[in-house]
Amino acid sequence: MAQKSSMIKMFHSLWAYVVLAALLISLINAIRGRSQGRAFGAGNRNLALLPLVAAHIQLLLGLGVYFISTGYHALKAEGMSHVMAHANLRDQVVEHPLTMVIAIVLITIGYSRQKRRADASERFKTIAVFYGLALLLILIKIPWAAWMD
Ligand code: HEM
Ligand code: HEM
Asked: Which of 12, 52, 137 should be mutated for ligand 2, with most atoms under 8 A from CB?
């Protein structure tokens, strides 16, 4: 049981690198594509899809981690006001999941919007704006101290 718990947490922790790398590559490609006035081909489409799939997988992993987290156990045992009064518990139960879900929703909206644009420059711009905002939110809410230790 304890081993299963740490396994999914480990995957969530490792997969964060994939999400960050995919977002960063896709974002840089979109900014360069727009500024260089490039056409939007299959390579660009795949580079836009990569962070979407990576983020959706991270959402599933995050949900798995959520229900075995210290914060969730504290929520069940002590209630919401206890969780809210402790920064680390509040982060696990509320701030991190909520911020990350918003980031993932932004990626999903950005992806489906660019798909509906005919103009290459508009597609690059849509990706740059939505993925850029998502990356910012993710960077803000990664628990850096816990991740790096
Ligand atoms: C809790 C889990 C998940 C939720 C709530 C979710 C939700 C969504 C939503 C709302 C869309 C619609 C985007 C649009 O308007 O086009 C979408 C698209 C997509 N999702 Fe997920 N997803 C989840 C898990 C996954 C997983 C695990 C994968 C891959 C292994 C995945 C891959 C995709 C792909 C490839 C698309 C879009 C394809 C396209 O439009 O070209 N999703 N998802
Ligand atoms: C792009 C999305 C996300 C990224 C990049 C991300 C990244 C991370 C990272 C790096 C950690 C630290 C792991 C460690 O201690 O080594 C973490 C912890 C955690 N994540 Fe996420 N996460 C994301 C989405 C989510 C979502 C959607 C949920 C819940 C629905 C979630 C729930 C949690 C929980 C509960 C922890 C704390 C685990 C614990 O210490 O017991 N995450 N996340």
From this structure: 12
Q: Is the CB of 97 under 6 A from ligand 2?
A: yes
Q: Dump pLDDT digits (tens) for 78-113.
A: 999 999 999 999 999 999 999 999 999 999 999 999
Query: Domain extents for the chain?
Result: 2-148
Does the predicted model carry a pTM greater than 0.90?
A: yes
Nearest CA to ligand 1 atom 27: 57
State whether CATH 3.40.190 applies to domain 2-148: no
On the question of pLDDT at 1 being above 50, the answer is no
- Joined together, the tokens standing for residue 46 give 């795949």
With CA atoms as reference, report the closest residue to 113 among 129, 100, 135, 132.
Answer: 129
